[in-house]
Here is the input.
Amino acid sequence: MTDVTTLGEFIIEKQMDFPGSSGEFSRLLSAIRLASKIVSQQVNKAGLLSNILGAAGSDNIQGEAQQKLDVFANDQFIKALTARKVICGIASEENDEYISINEEGSYIVAMDPLDGSSNIDVNVSIGTIFSIYKRISPVGTPVTEADFLQKGTEQVAAGYVIYGSSTMLVYTTGNGVNGFTYDPGLGVFILSHPDMTVPSVGKIYSMNEGNFYKSSEGIQNFIKYAQEVDPGSNRPYTARYIGSLVADFHRNLIKGGVYLYPVTSTSPNGKLRLLYECNPMAMIIEQAGGKASDGQTRIMEIDPKSLHQRVAFFAGTSHMVNKIEELIAAE
Here is the structure.
């Protein structure tokens, strides 16, 4: 343990790469680190504490039933980010509207505080997704909706935390992707996956195939293509679907594959949220050498129209995303 690098040390080291840095961004990341530790602790106790499991008795803006841990995680991240006094606003998947915090703050955060919460009660991996932007409104004035409705290309950082057999924090600031595993004994995140890259040849596809007949011809053709036997193109692919974006994405990032959540007859605009889920994951996969698309357009080039906008989402190994785009175009 003498040559390990902690997340705190890594943040400070990278801050030195930016002359004149005020330390605001480092404090923001430290807030995310703190909140993720608290949420991780509660997730690990979920089977023991009945007051953590189950529905909270309310719905979020999407009409989805909130779990108690959804509400807890949302509160913890908001509290930690607010206390650092470096952000002017937060937009959360769990809140109807954005939250205005500190007019002097330079950054805004968009987040899904607990992705995959339907898996909480069955002890399956869940996660947190976050996205960070510089505000576009003048410092010293209230945050505006326009600060949040920026293209994904304007992100200064993005990341996720996965709460599974171990807790990992993976993030990028536009200079590669690095992963940190939490050591609960020491209470620190340790650099365990430096310079993460998605394998150039993928073998896994992750989709809820219960939506097969609700999907377009192009998506149905891709699933058929994935299941065909063709050793020359590494097929058939292996189907793996957990039902938690963070967990499915994390596996495919490490092992090589593609995540699909297409437009369906019951979700005509797609299901995943552009600001809270798709943009941050798109930035990560691109920085890892992969690709993210809505089937036609690069995810990070989509111009957001609303806080809770939904889009189709395909992300992973580039050649697999390219094939999906090809088959959609051929419909």
The first strand starts at residue 55 and ends at 59.
